[in-house]
Design a protein that fits this description.
The protein is mostly helical. It is 66% helix and 1% strand. It is built from 75 helices and 2 strands. A two-stranded antiparallel sheet has the order 1-2. Strand 1 and strand 2 form a beta hairpin. Helix 3 packs parallel to helix 5, helix 27 packs across helix 28 and helix 42 crosses helix 44.
């Protein structure tokens, strides 16, 4: 049985070896190897028989006949055999080894022509067998390696490989092989064969050398080099004299590779004799080959052999050797070419050999090369110098002064590549004691200078001949080298540290230098001396510095001119405490300016580096700072460590730094020191012009430091200098300067105010005059900027100075100066307009006074003329008309206000005496007067029109449409502001008397509303009472007509489209315009529930609704000309209006939250509308709770709407309210539950689905109420699982998601009877075609398991076991895209409810498996599931499946048959990844189960199923099937 089953498995796999996919073939090969692991001889026999049965070889692309097998597939089988043999060589029987040797030999030599992959694979099998059965392999090979005939290429190649893999086994055969092979060398005419002989000679030589080097382990310790000398020399003669001159490059390289190891086996006298020819011959190859690695490697071996025998002829070859090797080292290195890099290593190895035998000649050649200006020559030479310093240290010991002196010119080279090479040489010198020699200081100073290179001076990328990666810039390498040397070479501290100090302070203090200071700061910190600290003060580690301490203090040969130590110390005290840090070596301000940097993460973290350095050097800065900084600096470092560049609060960090500075100044309590610090800060200001934020903060630091200074003269002087040197045209700088004055005023209020007053009185505020008047405009602008600065300074002073002091100064000093020096010009006065009517009345405001008088006279005469027609006598005098004569005096007044007031009075008189039937004619005439070229007359017309409308507007009801139309047309004709204002007032006056008529007239305006119509709508929002009427009318208009009409979108379309109706659309746009005015707030509040509800439902009704075709065309035309202020798209218009309601209603937070969460965008899309409604409801519950009761009352009334979408919208909103605790707080919970329950039978599936969502939302909003309503909720939600009227199962999906949320909160006694029913009901959804249903059902299954923890009944345990295979396999579930709108909507909703992003089936499986673990009552398995399947953790599926199956089969081996049969079901899954995972699961189960459980599995059925999978269209599935077939050997 065993033999037949293994053979059957092998036969299945071998038949699959011809798979078209190379990865599948590799897996089949791996499966064969797996069979070989368990049954090596059986697997090898099967492969052997298969190859003999298919002895004929057919072309790889030809048609395969019975008994034929192409060589690529034979290669795969041979590779599998090699693997099995290599792993089980010790178990292989001799007869089986002989059979394999015969097969491999036949496969290797069957084809006379070269078929490399196939023949190489056969050769590898022979080599693998030869590791144990060398005699048998050699017997077979030597039978095909006979004198007088050239052997097969791969026979020779196999001999070479055997020599490399089995040295002790092959060397005893070499004498006979060489004697047979030497005559063959002359017979080889083809270069391919010659290359093979070169290769075998190379490996023979290398094996011999290895054998001789390990004679103590060799089987025959009597073997000597002389044994092979004669044969090797004979071969050498042929290779060097006959083959090396060949034109074939491959052959020349093969020859030179062989000559290297062969040179060690040549007799000494022969080598000495051949060197004068050999070395030039090898060197000549450099000119013939682009890839010279093999030449250099061989040359190094030859040189080593020559040195070993003490060659005397080598010296004569040195010049040519050095020249050729130096040329090679100067070749540009490309990191992408491994051979070029390896060649340089071999060339350097050659230099090492030469350095050991001729150091003087080597340096005499190299050092002058450093003086050349050629980049490549200098870089290459520096590489060699570095290498010999490291590799030939003993020979170079006495040469140190010469090498140091030769570095003089390279130190001056500015080329980046040379600099990098110099830095590397200096690093080598440091480790070998060069830098303590005379001239070593220059090396240290050089490397420190390179650390100080600013970033912008670095090349963006290095050239193609770069030695290292492009990111390894000079600065980066120097930093790394400096840090490495300072932390690993103790004797480097004395020369390096003072130069770091000087270099740090020598840099310009601008922001561009800050990154360069960081490496110096770190090096200083890394080398700081504990002796520099105050006795008893904590060290750097204790204080949070964390750096290596300097081995010894810096010794100064003379007293410094000034040290940052407290200058009260005597020389004696200084001597007792250690060395000073002079100002020339270390200045406080540059270090502090890094510390107080407002951008601590720039420059590779300059802030933290400087803080740590300050902590170490505290006593050298000021003796009083040690204890204080030991506490404060670690806190700052801790704050930086807890933040990132993105999360650091800029304001908080600056406040902490200013507090640190104030604390430092207080701790020092030294006015001289404080003044010096402030002067240094001021000196650095100009360096920060390109960094306004840094400069702003530096101003604050200056203000803080000046505030701590006690010298009033110094404070005033510094303030004056700051005012004079500041760049007042820069807004950020003005702000920083003002902050400085404000901070300083806290301590020096009188001095700050005095200095500001002196500055205002100075010549700075005088404008340019005289010959420079051409710059007058610019000068005036500069003066205005100066004024802005001073006013800003006064503002900050008033805000920050002590209140009790500043109050006394406000009037006497601050306001007095501002009013005295900064008076402003009066703005345009308020406009009141003028009077008269018709053709004459507007002339009452004519520019000419005489015309005004005449105009009044004309009006006077016309009114009396009318009275005459009315029957009055000529001598009748009307008091009102007579008053016109008294108004003439007002018309003569030049003041426009008096003039237009007079015009208004004239209009009042006309309004009283004008007959009603003449009113509209008069108004229309005056409207024409709005375009009068005399602006005074036009203004007068506006004043008179509004006066007439106010006085007589009640008589114009029938004329309202005409007046509104005229107003709109006049607004289009003019852009004068006073006309616009008058038009707004006119429509307001009309609406105050005829609100409904005005609203109707404006609604009749063409859509989209142009900007002039929008102006008129907004004019109706200025008075709350009128606004309330307008909003009410618009709501009534919006609901009067149907929101849309259904029509066929296209002639051939099967689904109706929806087209917006005009009246509701116009009303919606009008609502937005009215509510966009701030003054509409009170009216909106009054109608808030009605407005909110109506517009929310309007949004729902217009989702997917399009404009009528006429309006669509109009929109397109307007896009090319002057567009309307807003888009007319129906849904967008409704959303805008709804936003306006919220803004005017005081709910800005709701609008902002919706914007932040993308709610507005979702609200207007078909797929996202429900989610948008839910987000709106959530935002309302959070920020507008008190408004909800009335809003809910309005929405409930719409639940029976005839429009399905309105029911969906209202139900979605109410359902989401239950997810907030506000529903319970406002006593809305019971009404909401009652209302939603009543909609369970709604004919719309979406409504029913949202009802279930709302019921489940109680779990989030009022979890404590779930138990009270548990039976009702569970019954309703579980009922949704059986919804039969939903073809897409979306109601069932919602039910599953909702039930998962309720289970954890319900009473156990309510749950237990339902668990089994629910588990059975949801099981079919595990394999649903819809990803959302799979995800929700699997996640719910996890919650069912969770509910069973601690009390799982046996009946439910069956469900757990039955779910294991689907859950494990669906971990590989594909995340297919969703195309239908309904499923998109479901996905969005489920993502919200699961709180885990998109509905992810693998994530659901993770959760369900974790919850299932405890119910299986196996602690190890439960722990493994918890460990591997944590959310957010990456999962290696194969590793996890292997672990799980191992535990399952260890604890539950009886489940094998059930699990395998379930996984067989998924062999036919429609998802490729699941189909591939199923055989994986089966394979791992088989791998870990004991063989005694084999009867549980129907092997025939399983093998047949796997054999079918080998023909699956997906390569991945075929691979996994092959892998599992390999594991079935367990049951053999």
């Amino acid at each position: 049985m065993t033999e037949s089953y293994v053979k059957k498995l092998s036969a299945i796999l071998l038949d699959a070896i011809t798979d078209k996919d190379p990865l599948v073939r590799e897996q089949v090969c791996g499966a064969l190897c797996a069979l070989g692991e368990a049954q090596p001889e059986e697997a090898l026999s099967a492969c052997e028989e298969y190859l003999w049965q298919h002895e004929k070889v057919f072309p790889a692309r030809g048609h395969r006949l019975a008994g034929e097998l192409a060589h690529p597939y034979r290669t795969m089988i041979l590779r599998a055999m090699e693997t099995v043999v290599s792993g089980h060589i010790s178990e292989l029987r001799k007869d089986k080894a002989r059979a394999i040797i015969l097969l491999a030999s036949s496969e290797m030599t069957r084809a006379k022509e070269l078929v490399c992959d196939w023949q190489q694979a056969a050769s590898n099998v022979l080599v693998a067998v030869g590791k144990r059965f060398i005699s048998q392999v050699m017997e077979e090979l030597l039978s095909k390696f006979q004198p007088g005939a050239l052997p097969h290429y791969f026979v020779v190649q196999t001999l070479a490989s055997l020599a490399a893999s089995n040295v002790f086994g092959m060397v005893p055969f070499l004498t006979s092989i060489l004697s047979t092979m030497l005559p063959m060398l002359g017979m080889a005419k083809h270069d391919t064969m010659r290359v093979a002989f070169c290769c075998v000679l190379q490996h023979f030589s290398e094996s011999t050398l290895e054998y001789l080097a390990n004679l103590d382990q060799a089987p025959d310790p009597t073997v000597r080099k002389d044994t092979f000398a004669t044969d090797i020399f004979s071969a050498y003669d042929i290779l060097f004299n006959h083959w090396l001159p060949s034109r074939e490059a491959k052959l020349r390289l093969a020859v030179v590779e062989a000559l290297g190891p062969m040179s060690h086996l040549l007799p000494s006298e022969k080598l000495e004799e051949q060197l004068p020819k050999l070395l030039p011959g090898v060197l000549a190859l450099y000119k013939k080959h682009a890839e010279t690695f093999h030449v250099s490697k061989s040359l190094g071996q030859i040189l080593e052999a020559a040195v070993t025998v003490g060659s005397r002829t080598l010296e004569a070859q040195l010049d040519s050797l050095l020249a050729a090797l130096h040329a090679q080292i100067c070749v540009p290195v490309e990191s992408s070419s491994p051979l070029v890099v390896s060649n340089q290593k071999e060339v350097l190895r050659c230099f090492t050999v030469l350095a050991s035998c001729a150091p003087d000649r080597l340096l005499a050649f190299l050092l002058p090369k450093l003086d050349t200006n050629n980049e490549r020559t200098r870089v290459g030479t520096l590489q060699v110098v570095r290498h010999v310093i490291n590799s030939a240290a003993s020979q170079m010991e006495v040469k140190k002064p010469f090498i140091l002196s030769s570095m003089r010119l390279p130190l001056l080279d500015t080329n980046s590549k040379v600099k990098r090479a110099v830095v590397q040489v200096i690093s080598a010198m440091a480790h070998h004691g060069y830098l303590e020699q005379p001239g070593g200081e220059a090396m240290v100073e050089y490397i420190v200078q390179q650390c100080a290179l600013p970033p912008e001076m670095e090349p963006w990328k290095l050239g193609p001949d770069s030695e290292d990666l492009a990111t390894d810039s000079v600065r980066a390498i120097s930093i790394s080298t400096l840090y490495l040397v300072s932390t690993t070479v103790d004797r480097m501290s004395d020369p390096a540290l003072p130069r770091c100090c000087r270099q740090t302070t020598a840099l310009p203090p601008g922001p561009l230098a800050l990154p360069a200071q960081v490496p110096h700061t770190r090096a200083l910190h890394g080398g700081a001396d504990p002796a520099l600290q105050e006795p008893g003060a904590p060290g750097p580690e204790e204080a949070g510095g964390g750096g290596r301490c300097l081995p010894r203090p810096v010794r100064q040969q003379r007293d410094p001119p000034f040290a940052l130590r407290h200058n009260h110390e005597t020389s004696a005290s200084r001597g007792s405490r250690g060395a000073w840090w002079p100002l020339e070596c270390l200045e406080l301000p540059p270090v502090l300016r890094q510390t107080v940097s407002s951008n601590p993460y720039l420059g590779d973290g300059r802030g933290a580096a400087a803080l740590r350095l300050l902590n170490v050097l505290h006593h050298s800065i000021h003796p009083s700072l040690g204890q204080r900084w030991a506490t404060t600096i670690p806190l700052l470092l801790e704050h930086l460590d807890g933040c990132t560049e993105e999360t650091l609060s800029q304001k908080e960090w600056e406040e902490k730094l200013l507090a640190f500075l104030r604390d430092t100044l207080a701790a020092a309590s030294d006015n001289t020191w404080t003044c010096q610090l402030s002067l240094e800060m001021c000196r650095q200001l100009s360096c920060y012009d390109a960094e306004p934020q840094e400069k702003n903060f530096l101003y604050k630091c200056i203000g803080t430091t000046l505030g701590a200074a006690s010298s009033k003269d110094m404070v005033r002087k510094q303030l004056q200098e700051l005012l004079e040197t500041a760049r007042h045209q820069e807004e950020t700088e003005r702000e920083g300067l003002a902050c400085c004055f404000g901070i300083c005023a806290i301590s020096h209020l009188d001095d700050v105010l005095a200095q500001l007053e002196n500055f205002m009185r100075s010549d700075v505020f005088r404008k340019s005059t005289g010959i420079f008047n051409i710059f007058k405009d610019r000068s005036e602008n500069e003066v205005e900027k100066l004024k802005s600065t001073v006013i800003l300074c006064y503002g900050h002073v008033a805000a920050q100075a002590p209140r009790e002091l500043v109050l006394a100064k406000v009037e006497s000093d601050i306001l007095r100066n501002i009013f005295q020096y900064f008076s402003t010009k009066a703005l345009v006065p308020f406009h009141n307009l003028g009077v008269l009517i018709g053709l004459f009345s507007p002339r009452c405001a004519d520019l000419w006074p005489a015309t005004r008088q005449e105009a009044v006279s004309c009006v006077y005469a016309l009114l009396y003329l009318h009275l005459g027609y009315e029957g009055f006598s000529r001598d009748y005098r009307d008091d009102a008309i007579e008053r016109l004569l008294t108004l003439k005096e007002g018309l003569a007044h030049p003041d426009p206000a008096i003039l237009f007031h007079t015009c208004h009075s004239i209009a009042q008189i006309i309004a009283k005496r004008l007959p009603p039937e003449q009113l509209i004619s008069l108004l229309l005439t005056m409207f024409e007067g709005l375009g009068d070229p005399d602006k005074n007359c036009s203004r007068a017309a506006t004043v008179m029109i509004n006066c007439l409308l106010k006085e007589r507007g009640n008589m114009l009801l029938e004329k309202v449409p005409e007046i509104v139309s005229v107003l709109r047309s006049k607004l289009q004709e003019t852009r004068e502001e006073y006309v616009l204002q008058a038009a707004r007032h006119s429509v307001y006056l009309l609406a105050s008397q005829h609100c409904a008529a005005v609203v109707s007239s404006l609604l009749g305006s063409p859509l989209p509303f142009d900007s002039h119509t929008c102006i008129l709508w907004r004019a109706l929002a200025v008075e709350p009472g009128l606004t309330t009427q307008v909003l009410g009318l618009l709501l009534e208009k919006m609901s009067r007509d149907v929101p849309f009409k259904e029509t066929r979108a296209f002639l051939l379309s099967s689904s109706p489209g929806r087209v917006a109706t005009l009246l509701p659309l116009a009303a919606t746009c009008a609502l937005y315009e009215v509510m966009s005015v701030l003054a509409s707030g009170p009216a909106v509040l009054e109608l808030y529930p009605q407005l909110f509800t109506a517009l929310l439902l309007r949004v729902g009704c217009t989702v997917g609704v399009v404009l009528p075709r006429t309006l669509q065309a109009k929109e397109r035309r307007s896009a090319g000309s002057a567009p309307a202020p807003r888009s007319l798209e129906p849904c967008s218009s409704a959303v805008d209006a709804l936003q306006a309601v919220l803004l005017r209603g005081g709910n800005e937070e709701v609008v902002q939250r919706m914007e932040l969460e993308g709610g507005w965008r979702l609200l207007g899309t078909s797929a996202g509308h429900e989610e948008g409604v839910a987000r709106l409801a959530s935002a309302m519950a959070k920020f507008a709770g008190p408004r909800l009761p009335l809003v809910m009352k309005e929405l409930v009334c719409t639940q029976s709407s005839a429009y399905e979408i309105q029911r969906v919208t209202s139900t979605g909103f109410l359902a989401e309210l239950l997810s907030s605790s506000v529903a319970d707080d406002l006593l809305l919970l019971e009404p909401l539950l009652h209302n939603l329950a009543a909609r369970q039978k709604d004919p719309c599936a979406s409504v029913r689905r949202l009802v279930l969502r709302g019921l489940a939302n109680i779990a989030s909003g009022s979890p404590d109420k779930v138990r009270a309503h548990g039976p009702q909720l569970l019954t309703a939600v579980i009922g949704g699982l059986d919804d039969r009227d939903d073809p897409h199962s979306l109601v069932a999906l919602e039910a599953m998601v909702g039930l998962a949320r309720l289970l954890d909160l319900a009473e156990p006694q309510d749950l237990r009877p339902l668990l089994l029913h629910v588990a059975i009901r949801i099981r079919p959804f595990f394999d649903s075609e819809k990803m959302e249903l799979r995800s929700a059902s699997i996640r719910l299954f996890g919650h069912l398991n969770k509910a069973c923890h601690g009390g799982c009944a046996d009946t439910f345990l069956e469900q757990v076991v039955g779910g294991l295979v689907p859950l494990l396999l669906h971990l590989r579930d594909p995340q297919a895209p969703v195309t239908s709108v309904s499923l998109q909507r479901a996905r969005v909703g489920q993502a919200r409810l699961t709180q885990g992003g998109s509905p992810d089936v693998p994530q659901a499986c993770r959760f369900a498996l974790r919850m299932s673990g405890p119910n299986l009552k196996c602690e190890q398995l439960a722990a493994a599931l918890q460990q591997h399947l944590q959310d957010g953790r990456g999962l290696h599926f194969g590793e996890f499946l292997n672990c799980t199956c191992k535990l399952l089969m260890h604890h539950f081996p009886d489940l094998l048959g059930r699990l395998v049969s379930t996984s067989l079901f998924y062999f036919k899954s429609s998802w490729e990844d699941v189909r591939a995972a199923a055989p994986m699961l089966t394979g791992f189960l088989v791998l870990h189960v004991e063989a005694e459980h084999r009867p549980q599995v129907d092997l025939e059925q399983l093998t047949t199923a796997l054999q079918l999978l080998l023909k699956d269209p997906a390569p991945l599935v075929r691979m996994k099937a092959a892998e599992t077939l390999g594991r079935l050997v367990k049951f053999a």
